[in-house]
Amino acid sequence: MPSIEIIKENIKNAIKNAVREKYSIDIKINIEKPPEGYGDFSYPLFDLVKFLRRDPADIGREIIDSIRLENIEKMEVSGNYLNFYVDYLSLSEEFIRNIWERGSEALNFEKKNIRVILEHTSANPTGPLHVGRGRNPIIGDTIGRILRKCGYDVETHYYVNDAGRQSAILVYGYKNIKLDVNEKKLDHMLVPYYQKANELMEKNPDIAKEVEKIMMDVEGGNEKIIMENREILGKVLDGIRETLSRINVRFDKFYWETELILNGSVKRVLELLKDEIKEEEGAYYIEVEVRGKKEKVFLIRKDGTSLYFTRDIAYHLVKSEMGDELIDVLGEDHKPHAEMLLQVLKKIKKDISIRTVFYSFVSLPEGRMSTRRGRVVYLDDLIDEAVDKAREEIIKRRSDLKEEEISSLAEKIGTGAVRFNILKIQSEKKLVFKWEEALNFEGDSSPFLQYSYARASSILRKESWKGNFSRNLLRDPSEISLVKNLLNYQEIILDSARELRPYKVAKYAVDLASSFNIFYSQCPVLRESEDIKQNRLGLVYAFRIVMGDLLETMGIEHPEEI
RNA sequence: GGGCUCGUGGCCUAGAUUGGACAAGGCACUGGCCUUCUAAGCCAGGGAUCGCGGGUUCAAAUCCCGCCGAGCCCGCCA
Hints:
Gyrase A, domain 2; alpha/beta; three-stranded antiparallel β-sheet; Rossmann fold; five-stranded parallel β-sheet
């Protein structure tokens, strides 16, 4: 089956050739998407009108007469545009047959044999995740799912910062302070120790020295200390993992920063860069050019210890040996860091490929989230609220469910809403967190998608489709519009993967669900005569497969009934 | 002060990579639709000088310049 993209390419080439032959000119052909009612692709004739000084209707006619295209059912001139109508109906027969034969497998792309190391989240293991950086795991995980669909071998990484000052403070606090903490979830449980240690440190320079000592031990590769620290930090990490797992985010690998010290990767970086390293007052740096400006990047402090940046170079070098392409999902504050990092890495490995997805922080109406000022919404709280809201909504509509069924459904709906409401917005756009929007279950929200899926499932539970589908039995415009939308799925996935913009998938999901809901309201299925019924069941079947696949790609559950 | 990003109806978002046909959705608002496959839905309606000012072009939300406003960054922190 030719993809929509290929059909577009064919149109473009056909016009280009026709114009070259008929008018002996070589011009750039720009094919665009016209508004509703003007076909599926269009070519503006302005350039030719201007060049030939002739009526667009005549030019259009001449082009139409001289080209032949497959999968195009109609071409016509309208004003200054040449419009093409794609023969979606014959494409639809093949598409739906594929789905009948192979199920959701029909929607995947061939294996590419390209290994992608996708790093995301990587929050410091010193406390629970909050919504401020909450976009990271959701965007990162969804990108991973999209790339897998496209045939990449994806390995997701969480880089655990156990070498910095913050980690040392938490470790000190947990080891030395006695507190009565009434909290089961591990990431929340350790917060008071961290806070108390920070407080003591400000007042007492001796404690600051103790913390310093931990850092030096870690830096020096003291394996015993490093492992002890990992045990404590690992508790917080377990809490973080528990939160993430609730919203379907899981990692293939947790890479501990201190591993780079223990396995000599940091030393190796310094060795590889030794010709470029310069000295200043006992500290060492190299120079890189970013945006035409020379920047000093320090690698070794004057006390001989390495910096986060140094270890990050080492980490990326290690990753580049594990995979062919690297992708990092980072907060906007890391932008300059990432630019410099890439420049340094290029000095070591010319052809290194790193793509970075940046997102801006989620803030509160009162301003930036800040744990210190207590102005913060934890991801756990957002998830809990969303699940509670989902429960209320379920109870409003369903009196037939048992308690466990309600709980399980509420979890699926609530967590889906959390993912979707973050996912649907372009990552570089700033986002102000408002409860009423975060808990929106209507319009472009995940319950809207899950609802359309459940409706389709419900029809198919009552009667099954036997696999027959014919374009000739499509009657209603809403059926055709649904078919068109279904056919766009793979193009959207590719587009979204190419640009690393998962919100495009989210937008498409709303369009698709919407076209199904319109179909649902316009076209009865079960009440129809046998042949129409079977045909419509085919549409419902295909929609259910595609929507299920879409929701999975976004990490959202798709219950059979809601 | 310098750099990066963003600015689209009352609110939120798409459209910007490739300039094109009346700027597209959602929330909120007004009115209609459950004896028919799940009303978390569907239909209809009002509501936008696309931050402001210039420029390029037959054509600008989109490209260029300037300004204003918001966020982020400018450590031998992470």
